[in-house]
């Protein structure tokens, strides 16, 4: 194409009509000839036969178009792109408005701006590659923006919004706008952002309009479209919200709940640095005595927050100077330094257990004799069978529950490996971690003493559980922050937590518990399981899938005989956990089958230990979860009935249950199955279908034959 044609094709002004740039090629009101008019003049024949001016058109590569019958209705089009300087939102809407589909590549955009493409520009479909920020930044930007996440998720699910990102930075700005008549191709400086379309920023673009019936323009359109699609030929291409869609496939959560999990900010560099520091500190503390010194130094990166530096100084006695912290080995290995939670290290290949306790290091023995195992099992059974001396309506169920708690305690240090196995086999579709444990029982039922026994089984010392009675939000946050950075698998046993902990009331642990495994945990982290005990029965719906409640429906006599038995048990070393750990690790190395029963490996391991000891499994051994054997809710309700918590009377068409306190009524009602219909009137509970209620309560009553035998055994052992 000649240079004269190129120069003459430049237009001096443009008018925008109906949302798109448009110039009338026949207009005579411009100061210079339009590009089309100039091209026509250059191509005009001078032959005598030509008495009428004839419009001609050239393709983008300069070829002359022949006026064939199949092209007679095609309007002339420009050989060169149009250009425009975007100065404000009005010019943006004129350029991008009037189209149904947007496809393209932008360096940056924001989640909220994506929604404006639908609301302000009326696009029906948006398909983009984002060159920066999508991989890591979008989830952070959306934290707490439930409505925005919901709107984006809806469009992602119906494919009206398709968004891709890569780890590589892509600076391209290229857009395809499509309606029923044409495709507009735009390239230039602007990103799709509020900043770019604002009045304080200028952007410059070239654009082509290619009608759908323009066969010659189609070749050019296809070539640029191939360039656009090449941006998706990346090995690390990630589709926006695909992980959220996977999460929602088998999720039992409310939609908003999953949105909040998904959008939580990733662990910042300061927390990561603290994890690395504490991992190094523990490694130095657990060194062999001949290799380790009482005092050692660790580098402290600048990214470590001031609050974390104070924590190292206050809790670990660290002296921080010139980017280094000096630690005392004995302080690191003291459980009081770690808010009452001992440090624990388990060898992944041998199951060797090392515990930091009292300022020293305890290494559990690897070679345990049959006699030592037998004695340890006998002590466990003796403790559990104290139930036969207590006030208990259903001792078989309670004893099974207590043994289940012991299995949970011994399996707890391996919860992280269990979760890795679950994630590997179930994928992101089921991210829910193992459930924490809540032991419920009325006062004076031995929960605190049992907590000491749990610690005794793990470390050989009946150390006191963490006292949660006075914990408020600040203390809970400090505890959770510490245990999720400390890196110890030793379970946190917390005594006497408030009634608000598992409700929606102020002081709830909802945020800490919900995000514990589902969002914050990573395979390289070590989070300890938590065992709570409480006198309060109320648990809201959010907690029921994240904590497991086991009922200790028993009241111990606290007699001198009972105390003597417990003291004897706690004074003797119990060697069951050491072989348990060794066998559990061996089972993990065998690539075990994932099951919903979180303790299925623990049940098999404990059964094997009984075989090694040559000892019979007790009748109350939980071969399956006790909840599958006994209806715990029915047992609870029958227990309340037996103690006269309410008075029952018949009324027309139903039953009237009168309680002394509203809280007792609420707890009782929360245990009733959905099949039992009820109405609350102050402290009165009306049962509308007595037959269903009777059927439910029957599940909690003792079988008459077993009941007589149980009472005889109880009487005999008490004598």
Show the helix and strand layout:
Layout: H1 3-8, E1 15-17, E2 20-22, H2 35-42, E3 82-86, H3 89-96, E4 101-106, H4 111-119, E5 125-130, H5 137-141, H6 146-157, E6 161-165, E7 174-178, E8 182-188, H7 194-197, E9 203-211, H8 215-230, E10 238-239, H9 242-249, H10 255-263, H11 269-285, E11 295-299, H12 306-316, E12 319-321, E13 324-328, H13 329-332, E14 343-346, E15 353-357, E16 360-363, H14 370-384, H15 395-411, H16 415-426, E17 436-440, H17 447-459, E18 466-467, H18 473-486, E19 492-495, H19 510-518, E20 530-534, H20 541-544, E21 547-551, H21 560-571, H22 577-589, H23 600-613, H24 626-629, H25 632-642, E22 646-651, E23 654-659, H26 662-671, E24 678-681, E25 684-687, H27 690-698, H28 704-718
Parallel strand pairs: 4-5, 5-6, 17-20, 17-21, 18-19, 19-20
Antiparallel strand pairs: 1-2, 3-9, 4-7, 6-10, 7-8, 8-9, 11-13, 12-13, 14-15, 15-16, 22-23, 23-25, 24-25
Helix pairs in contact: 9-10, 14-23, 15-23, 22-23
